[in-house]
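Q: How do we represent a protein-ligand complex in a form that can be generated token by token?
A: Start from the inputs.
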Amino acid sequence: MALDRIDIWTADEEPRLSAVLSECWALLVDGAADPQHEFHTLALATASAAQGCTLRTVVLRRVERETRELSFYTDLRSRKIGEIQADPRVGLLFHSHADDTQIRIQAEARIHHGDALAEAAWSQVPLSRRRDYMVSGPPGLPWAWPTSGLEDGLEDHAPSEAQSLSGKVNFAVVVCSLRQMDWLYLTPHGHRRANFAWDAEGQLRTSWLVP
Ligand SMILES: Cc1cc2nc3c(=O)[nH]c(=O)nc-3n(C[C@H](O)[C@H](O)[C@H](O)COP(=O)(O)O)c2cc1C
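Then emit the structure tokens for the protein with flavin mononucleotide bound:
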């Protein structure tokens, strides 16, 4: 936890909603920056015509408080992309045992592929991680035997810059614009819950809730 973070629970008074909102953003920023942080991964829910809804773990890559945006990377061929195209409303779930905190987010997702934003993100992906986008078929494609989906040699070695280009066409950044954030803090003496919702004009409405 960042040293300069507001200590919202050992203070004499109940925290203000603005302090709680700052705490949420601080946790998310830390989560994106620190692979050991429990907010580094999240559960992403999408609507699915076939299955009602689907869930999967993704890595939180970027957090922008000013624009209220969270980003993750994915394979353009993956099922979630089609689901987001059909309905961009997504749910994001974070839980930190260490911070006794759950954050649930409703957001609208935007897919970036082959544009300046995706290009800039791709340049930051280490060669070894670019393999994630070099699997031979769409993630989830049935195969006759256990497979990594990688070409021979790539399981043990990172691709060269030139080789990795075959993954670039599959690389997408999904940017999620927050519409609503629900914060739940667990304590042995009764929990606390708050909601933050932004309307279409970006106006924020805040409220305490019964946990
Ligand atoms: C710890 C962990 C991190 C993962 N990170 C990502 C990620 O950042 N992006 C991603 O597309 N899939 C990631 N996955 C894989 C997804 O959970 C999922 O299996 C894959 O994206 C296919 O999902 P879909 O078929 O619903 O599209 C991760 C899985 C785990 C266990």
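The CA atoms of residues 7 and 13 lie 11 Å apart. The pocket of flavin mononucleotide is lined by residues 41, 54, 56-59, 72-75, 78-80, 139-140 (CB under 6 Å).
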